[in-house]
Amino acid sequence: MSTTLKDIAKKTGFSVSTISRVLHDNSKKYKISEETQTKVQQTAKDLGYRLNTLARGLRMQKTYEIGLIVPDIANPFFSAVCKNLAGELRKGGYNFIVYDTDKDLSIERSAIKKVLEKRVDGLIIASVGQEFSHIQKIRDANIPLVMIDRCSDSVDVDSVSVDNVKGSMFAMNYLIKEGHTRIAFIQGTPGSYANETRLQGYKLALHDTGIAVDKHLIVGNDFRAMNGYLETKHLLKLANPPTAIFTAGNIIALGALDACKKAGVRVPQDISLVTFDDPVFTPYLSPPLTAVEQPIKKLSEMAVAILYRRMKNHHGMRKTLLLEPKLNIRSSVARISTRKNIIHSTKIEKN
Amino acid sequence: MSTTLKDIAKKTGFSVSTISRVLHDNSKKYKISEETQTKVQQTAKDLGYRLNTLARGLRMQKTYEIGLIVPDIANPFFSAVCKNLAGELRKGGYNFIVYDTDKDLSIERSAIKKVLEKRVDGLIIASVGQEFSHIQKIRDANIPLVMIDRCSDSVDVDSVSVDNVKGSMFAMNYLIKEGHTRIAFIQGTPGSYANETRLQGYKLALHDTGIAVDKHLIVGNDFRAMNGYLETKHLLKLANPPTAIFTAGNIIALGALDACKKAGVRVPQDISLVTFDDPVFTPYLSPPLTAVEQPIKKLSEMAVAILYRRMKNHHGMRKTLLLEPKLNIRSSVARISTRKNIIHSTKIEKN
DNA sequence: GACAATTGTGCAAACGATTGCATTATGGAT
DNA sequence: ATCCATAATGCAATCGTTTGCACAATTGTC
After folding, report:
1. B332 with B290: CB under 8 angstroms?
2. Model confidence pLDDT, tens digit, residues B316-344
3. What domains, with CATH codes, occur in chain A?
């Protein structure tokens, strides 16, 4: 259908080899005459020649493609990661194929299969699960691979992720410093990497400062807004409600905020709110939310750097990177005093 | 490196043809014996055979890949489109390659080149610009193509987009119905398809109801938050400020909201706010914003449907679809009365 | 017992590029 | 005149599949 080297060869009278060399080799190496070069290039343009990367990839055993597998591309965190990775990879002359697994492990498996069938040169994957045997297999097949946004000691693969534990501790320590001791945690999906590590940080911070963990203050079960809404409502009705809420993800925080407003509870005067994750709209909420920001740009850069390294050296030592998050302090936390706490409680009863 | 059909052939004693047929043909057609099938399948599994789509694509002249080109994947609208398209395409057995052009026409051009070199079976493109000659060329080369999120009579390509003009009119008519006559429009990037069509709807609605267009009320120059912030500040300082603001995009609205809050101007009591585009966080802002929602799911479904149609029939009639947006009424618009307007004005002076 | 139909499998030519190894022509050195 | 280096190009194998055609063996039909 489309023009091939052969067509150009026929038209110019040169051999396919010569055409190939002129068009892709920069042709210095083979000392093609100027005259031939211009002639070939001209006819290539005339005929609208377009490289066939399938043929090249097959012959060269290299595709210049990187596979990217993410649980949910509509999640601002992942779409930002996507964008940064794209830019970073472009610099190195690589393109990438994205797969959205919709947080489904079976789709993830089939995505991996597909992407390997495409003979990508490398793979970046933010796995959904806690189960990594299928990923280990890729590594065992010597396909360059880096995991992002989660790491596990149970697999021997390169990884770069954000230190969720530390992030939680930043948030919690700040709340504690401001005088809070009754701090609720609204979870995301239990069992997910993000949730478990963030929960761990929550507990650790409490433990470090000698505050007992109150199981009634750990609530919730997924990363959606409705979860934040319902659990906040529930928390506000407790006999002894928390003075602060820490949510495992930003969408949860949206729901929490909504619940507070509907209950006539003011943030931060009546209750404080901090959240993990910090997408573009957080500063524009009312009030602007204090949030744990993940270093997305750095994460992407590192992921690509580690991937390149692995593509050069299949058998190097495993590399795991844990990046430091950052607490962005805005206006959703109040310094606490006992009196405020009481006012707060009465307010609740009213509703 | 990896196992090929040949390897399996060698191991089982059958020919490459037989292996191929068993593994991909469902082999009914060629009446391969049960015995052979199981034997082949077993060794394929043992050897960890993985299809090489490069070779297959080369031979079959079909890749089962669709290229997707978007201006900014981190934009919630496009990442949602992405996700919906992915799901839709998966149903048909297609994968897709995404390119983020970063709103840069030259990157767009090179992305198109790259994606065609990959011999995708089709192309979905949300072009950045108003200039479509490069896109027309693809169509001329008989590559199935559908444009999304913008359409133009100047190119002869299939397209599906949201009726921005109508969307703007929905928003404006609502504001007008609520008694507003001084309505400002904060633009996005002038010259962009999204902006011009939304602006057109703004003007049209005013015109239809006999309200004169006041040029001082059309302000702004890009889709970012800072633009919304600065322009709102400016609008509030006018001698005769608007009673309502309509923003061309949601991020602009975030900035506008922020400016109002900082100026002590309440929404909607002191000024009303409506915006185009309606991502997940809009209902959780304070106040929940009345916004024009784009039918993203429908858009994606239609885009894929039209693409499939075009892949089957290269020479059919051009098809352009214009989908209807929807106004989600929340709490950012107040019914206006002259008295309120005066109170409002005094409030402004105070700041 | 002759012939046709069916069953099960293999041969070999594509698909479009890359590249090591010729090959030819030319000029210079001896 | 002989030999060698160099310049400019061509040959042909290869990458891993798919698939039209051929072919042998078996079964069925009259």
Report:
1. yes
2. 889 999 999 999 999 999 998 754 444 44
3. 5-51 (no CATH), 61-162+296-323 (3.40.50.2300), 164-289+330-350 (3.40.50.2300)
